[in-house]
Amino acid sequence: MARTSRQRVENELSQIREHLRQPEALDTAADFRVRADNRRKREKRREQLEERATFLENFLSATSVTPRATGEAAVAPGRLVGLTFGGSADVEEYEITSQSPVAEEGQALSPFTPLAAALLWREAGLLVEYEDDSGKRRTAQVRHVRD
Question: pTM (2 decimals)?
Answer without folding.
Answer: 0.76
